[in-house]
């Protein structure tokens, strides 16, 4: 059966939204997906205007996500969207995701998956019930050199993992820009829109997911210190966490949005018995691999010596740098290939299935809740509970 | 007047082609262009098969570029392609480009523009005659930090430019892989397909264009040493050139495809009276700016302190690395915005017009011819002639 | 009054010792100090043999430190050593230091100052009583760019300091080399020679001193996780500590000797309200300075734009890298200039007095004791007590 | 036979001299050499005053090099200096060197060896006649990772060498500081003190020596472009040279002292059939080694996997950076070990003999003369003649 481009319906992401534009580029890159319809803002006027700018025909340019989901579900299969992409602030993830699943649509959703762990668990149940596919855009696990790192750990090249250091410093909330009309900082520092954590919810979850994704380990204990550094904030803008993993390894996770002068400096180091690896998101095409008694190696995107997983997620030859948008596009592409395989009645390969889903979403929400609880406790170690 | 997506017709770039896929991604990224039709191979069977894989409907999937150009020109404006993209080897650039221009289509073409300087001049004449737009994909000038570099030179921040060092070492032709069935190396080392120069035509032209683009200067004299390092080749796979520029500055251009272990290590340094800049293509989001008596600065993509030109060509916030595909996409986007403005009867802005065109194409072919002539001469300096 | 070279008497540091050779080089570099006598090993035979290899005349080549201190104290001033340098393992620091002070000799001593906090306090009392000078070789504070960092913080260039991240990963104890006859690892993993902490005593103290030295802040609370990663060890070989400083800033200190593949990768980041700094010991001539809204700057050793403190501690012009031995030599040189000023009856300048002393020694021992106590507690935060 | 410290007599290098202080530190570092006497300035008053500051006793503090050489030669062997170190400007190298050799003293001399090729050849003859040892301080060949590079080339790890790129940009002569009383720039831009070349004589010779030292090849043809960039100068302050080596390899040598914003950025890349190496003087502890089909490796000073030659020239463990002064000290140490072996009647090992000598001096002067001749010629290639 021939399957054409997948049709995407976007919820949120209208004019002036940041992450919506990123999702569209990521969906465009490989020519496997087309923006078919949208409910691009909670304000119907803005929604329509945004749709026109994106060349949506009027009948596919909806005023609300409810309208979009309901009307699309009544269309013949050949015109109906295949999936929705939800790029609203955190508090507005759950309802459209649930509605889409209930109407038989697959879902792509920006992280964190929901506002609360409870909502996340409901989505998890619904996904399992329906057999539909949910892709959660933990972007950083889409980078080829992150895939390479994960594969090398899995293959035992470093022996047993002993220690993980992950840090994610940003500086963009160093000043109280939420008081000066900055839309991005306004909702991220507002508990009603962001949830119970600011910095840890926004970027700490990325760091935790990356550590678990590369190492194949799970966090089992945490000791968290959350800080409100800029006066007047209601949510943490900085934090440090001691970690224990299920194999006994220890770790440290540092996230900050008041690290003045930093851009988006996510870095991870994973130490094993025989060697270690180091990866920096801002120079994503290089994976540093260090050994006990041999020269450090620089594994680089696009080379023939890389693992199949790394090569599968690369579009250009070595020396032609790929970046954030390509990493993002890898999530979309793998999701699209999975859906297309299912439509054709084939089993998606493990490489196609390599994108974060609802289970990572639940784990991310549990991370937030556990971190906030630990931060409020005088006890050193708290068990990581889901 | 509302203008939808621009319709692209691709010539070449079928199955297993490298650069065709890159052009498609670059055209996709911003959602301004759609692949509308194609003549994707000189072999009609391969062409059709390639088109089907790219979801082209049968009536838009042509067996030859002649057929495509002729049939498309007969379609109503609303269905007709807006432009062709030519991604065949060098020897097959001229004929389809000329045919497209003669039928009123704009053209995007991979560099070098043609096989000979004479062909390039003919295209130049035709472009001027028709008033159509030609975009030549000297990718590296699409990077935001290259725009920033150019702007800072233009603004006189470094004073008069005194010296330019540009090097472009690659290692992928270190072995005679053209004898082992490598398609990419086979055509690039074949004079009938590549022209009179190998390495200098393929990558030396990029280096020369980048030096002139950033500095705003023109090469006026050269002293070239071309080398065939791997036995049995007919074309240079390595070369070094001393340069003089029109303001009296001196320079060096080094290009090599036998620099074993290098990926795509294009680097440029431009020295002025008061300071200098340095840019590496493999870490494209950083521009190093050095001063006589102050700390070196790292200008980074996506920051508010950058020039309008740099910001206009960026899609993500600082710390979210952009790469080769985004640089490539900037050429397509600026080309598309120019065409769309023209369709709407508006004047494209200088920022929209910032992509290489037929004049750079002529200059690139002149570079090749001058370099080959100088390399064959015992005289130290040769004037750069067009 | 003319003062010639200062005469140094070395205790420990004989054949096959590592740190003794480093101290001698550091003392030699500036031509201000000469090795005048030694008691170079606890084994009198080895001591004598080591002395001969270092060109000590027989009458200055002593069999024990007691003999050296006593005999030297009886010599006329013009022949007598000016100070002792103690480079024995930790457990053998206190006794010779105390004996030297009691006989009127200044002291240089490798860190940590003693085996216990109690011993350190006794030395502190004795130093204050005698008015003699004690220099403790926390090497890393001798680097010019560390001086630059400290000065910039002091000058308020970054505003109030908010967060400090310091990490010190080494890999050399990844394997149980102490069981294979490695002398360096044998004593460092032996509580009777090293004290109550392994990794934190050996390198965690460096990290803590560096953080306090650069920031001018003091640690007030800690939450420590110490680990024995390699089976069979009695002391920590790894650890992570959450920190609070006296101005409310938070921090993280990570030290590990099982970070396989790392050499001596001490790194520090200090974040303020307006900007931040980053320094890596393995590339010590560069200080990265980051700003909220301006390009990152690379401050480099040897430039005219640096602070007086940085310039005072540099010997070569910019671009001529200085390293670990020069940083070490800065401690010796400043110590020597201080002593020489005193001999001449002059007041040492603040720049001369810029070397760690007995107070830093006490603080380092308190760090070790507090960390070990916190690591054994279920309570999250412990006050830092001296 | 017991041999104590070697006694050094210094010519030049008094107050305010730069390179004299560097030589003294380099000689001090390993405790093998002592400054025994000096004629530290051509001005007798300055000479004496400089000597007192360096703690020279009056009878060893000479007013002229002639006096020093003559008087020392009359002293008994046990008091007599072993060698002279000449750190005057270029024009004042030959006479004291010749006089010292005639009186039986070994010689250390700063590069370039003399003012003219003719003088250099006379010294070469005299050195051969007398059997004395001359060490020429081409500092950069003293770095451990340069030794490692040389060894790997020699061992054939990269196959046949095909291309060498060496660049040495400095910025310190970007302004006409010689007109503002800068002593260093005044003599370096004065033909009567520097010789027939400025930039190429001062730093181009370093670059050429490094290329030949690492590759084991010899330059056979050159095509030089020398430039006077700053108005009013009599000597080149910038230049670019195309090279051919005796095995057919090609190369480029770039040297500039008007590269605004550069410190001392000597870099070299050597490409062979199977891989290549890259070394930067400003980060001297890392040697980048690149391969056709395997990850790039970072060889680092102080590791057990390095060649014997690299390890022999290292003083600290890995991760404890060594720098310019240690590289300089390696020349002195190897020279001293050679002399001491000779005194003991032993044969110096090849590792001891690994320092540049009079033959490199002659080759360096020939480089200058050939480059200046080629720069004045319209012919592309000139043979390298000695």
TrEMBL record, chains A, B, C, D:
Membrane-traversing stretches: none
State one molecular function term (GO): nucleotide binding
Q: Where is the Gfo/Idh/MocA-like oxidoreductase N-terminal domain?
A: 7-135
GFO/IDH/MocA-like oxidoreductase domain residues = 146-278
Xref: InterPro entries: Gfo/Idh/MocA-like_OxRdtase_N, Gfo/Idh/MocA_oxidoreduct, GFO_IDH_MocA-like_dom, NAD(P)-bd_dom_sf
Source species, domain of life: Bacteria
| Name listed for the protein in its UniProt record | Oxidoreductase
């Amino acid at each position: 059966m021939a399957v054409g481009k997948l049709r995407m319906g976007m919820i949120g992401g209208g004019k002036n939204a940041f992450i919506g534009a990123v999702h569209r580029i990521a969906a465009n890159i490989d020519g496997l997906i087309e923006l078919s319809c949208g409910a691009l803002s909670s304000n119907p006027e803005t929604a329509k205007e945004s749709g026109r700018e994106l060349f949506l025909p009027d009948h596919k340019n909806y005023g609300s996500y409810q309208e979009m989901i309901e009307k699309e579900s009544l269309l013949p299969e050949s015109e109906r969207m295949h999936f929705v992409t939800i790029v609203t602030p955190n508090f507005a993830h759950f309802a459209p995701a649930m509605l889409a699943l209930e109407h038989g649509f697959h879902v792509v959703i920006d992280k964190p998956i929901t506002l609360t762990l409870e909502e996340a668990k409901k989505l998890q149940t619904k996904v399992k019930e329906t057999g539909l596919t949910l892709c959660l855009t933990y972007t950083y696990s889409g980078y080829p050199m992150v895939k390479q790192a994960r594969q090398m750990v899995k293959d035992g090249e470093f022996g047993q993992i002993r220690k993980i250091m992950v840090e994610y410093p940003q500086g963009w909330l160093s000043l109280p820009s939420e008081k000066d009309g900055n839309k991005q900082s306004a909702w991220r520092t507002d508990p009603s829109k962001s949830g119970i954590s600011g910095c840890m919810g926004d970027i700490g979850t990325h760091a935790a997911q990356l550590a678990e994704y590369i190492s194949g380990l799970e966090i089992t204990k945490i000791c968290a210190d959350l800080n409100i550094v800029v006066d007047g904030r209601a949510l943490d803008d900085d934090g440090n966490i001691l970690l224990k993993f299920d194999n006994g390894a220890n770790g440290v996770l540092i996230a900050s949005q008041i690290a003045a002068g930093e851009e988006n400096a996510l870095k991870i180091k994973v130490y094993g018995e025989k060697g270690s690896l180091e990866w920096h998101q801002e120079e994503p095409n290089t994976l540093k691999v260090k050994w006990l008694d041999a020269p450090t190696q620089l594994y680089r995107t696009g080379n023939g010596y890389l693992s199949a997983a790394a090569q599968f997620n690369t579009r250009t030859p070595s020396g032609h740098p790929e970046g954030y948008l390509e990493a993002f596009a890898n999530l979309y592409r793998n999701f699209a290939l999975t859906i297309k395989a299912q439509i054709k009645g084939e089993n998606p390969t493990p490489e196609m299935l390599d994108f974060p889903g609802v289970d990572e979403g639940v784990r991310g929400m549990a991370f937030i809740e556990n971190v906030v609880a630990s931060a409020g406790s005088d006890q050193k170690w708290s068990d990581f509970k889901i």
